[in-house]
Write a structure and sequence with these properties.
Elements: E1 10-13, E2 18-21, E3 31-32, E4 35-39, E5 44-48, E6 51-52, E7 59-62, E8 67-70, E9 83-87, E10 92-100, E11 103-111, E12 116-119, E13 128-129, E14 132-136, E15 141-145, E16 148-149, E17 154-155, E18 159-162, E19 167-170
Antiparallel strand pairs: 1-2, 3-6, 4-5, 5-7, 7-8, 9-10, 10-11, 11-12, 13-16, 14-15, 15-18, 16-17, 18-19
Amino acid sequence: PPSFQTPRAFLWSAAQSTWREATPTRPGPPRRNAAIAYDERRQRVVLFGGEGERDPAPVWEWDGADWTPITANPAPPTRLMGEMVYDPDREVVILVGGQGGGAFLRDTWEWDGTRWTERRPANSPPALGGHAMAFDALRQRVVLFGGTLGPQNFHSDDTWEWDGSDWTLRATAQRPTPRTEHAMAFDRAR
């Protein structure tokens, strides 16, 4: 496998239309296939899981200057190919699925900046990894699409929505083709 490299952080300045490399005093952990989301309330980037070399903390936060390892108990099982998104209405980062311990996971966790809470809804997406999620700010829903379904290695074209207490499978006549390891974003203008 490719070697792990110390991550580099780059910051985009919209005002100057340019990138600049950040120089943290504490570099982040070398890793790949991690989940990442921006916590607006706390103004922190939250990074969870992934593959790394001898990384003692599954959660790291970036405050714009440095990376900090976070220890929390309880914490979700370490994983790769999970997905996270920030829910600004409930002020939590939501972690869903991924692959850990040799199996695909079908769990839902919330991070409030101090503790993880496992949610146990009546309905959940199947065990998957490599899916994409975005927060629909107009309808206050997390939207999840696609991913790889468990041991079948089948790519999904399912759409799921999280309302903060339960997942709902949305049946749509039109939808993208099945896919995995893709991205999604919310477009407020449309």
